[in-house]
Design goal:
Elements: E1 10-11, E2 17-18, E3 23-28, E4 33-35, E5 39-45, E6 53-54, E7 56-57, E8 63-64, H1 72-75, E9 88-96, E10 104-110, E11 137-141, E12 153-162, E13 173-178, E14 181-186, E15 192-198, E16 223-231, H2 248-251, E17 258-261, E18 276-281, E19 286-287, E20 291-294
Parallel strand pairs: 3-11, 12-19, 12-20
Antiparallel strand pairs: 1-2, 3-4, 3-8, 5-6, 5-9, 7-8, 9-10, 12-15, 13-14, 13-16, 16-18, 17-20
Amino acid sequence: MILENQQKTFLHCTGKAIVPALGLRFWDAVRDEQITDDLVVTARPARGYGNGVTAFRTLSGIYAFQGLPGLHSVEYPSVEPVSGQRQRRFVIKIIDSQRRFMPAVFEADLPLTKKELHAPGFLAQMENKRPCADDISLIYLFSTSVRPILPGLGVIRGKLEAYPGGPPAAHAVMEICIKGKKWFGIADDRGNVAVFLSYPSFSSSYGGSSPPSFGQKPLTEQKWTISVRIYYDPEMLTILPNEDLPDFKSIFSQSPCFIRTVHSASPAVVAPVEYMPAEISFGQELVLPDLLVDKITSP
């Protein structure tokens, strides 16, 4: 996740320039495209000074804030000097009215003093695929388990529970690695998670050495091996005041854990593993067996 100052300027009816203190661009991590509709984005003071503000959407699909409490000198630099502006902490919340994307909440100190605030851990790789080179903040959103099937994309579904006999592994992160590329999903409060992904290149009938005239295998025979990894440590989650969701950045600070499954022929629990192999077929959903996740660092 990247946060940056929004530099686009709007004109007030009085003719004075208005500079929003923060602008956010939301990005679909699966389809690799901007999300421009049906998001409700709010910012409220974290410490109770002033009212919350709902972002407005610009013509380019940016969600920008105007009228944030305590930031008048930032928004009206031609009227008030910005130097010495004291930072104020805000809670930013994103809700998708279509339920395509998981809700997210995080804190930001405005105005920002650094151009970028980087996400920790394994999500840092996503910053390398930034589609924009401008100064707009970029936030990746992740699919819900009820998101409709997307044409041409594969999906892996699972249900995660804490081991042994614990509650649903809410807010756990599922990582799917296929042909060296990683895809992610976040479990909801019931432990349900879905990871959408693009299929790798198709294989030919006889592998890479086949003559071009042989063509490819039929689509129904295209299969790929995947690796499943879970990140889960509820002690690492930070629940923000007056919110029922953990801080978005803390979700991606969780440590990898061990995965256990229940043997299909008996109630015995299979030995824990950190990486679980599976196979996905073109055009077919893969529903994993119920997974028990154990945050203990050794099996």
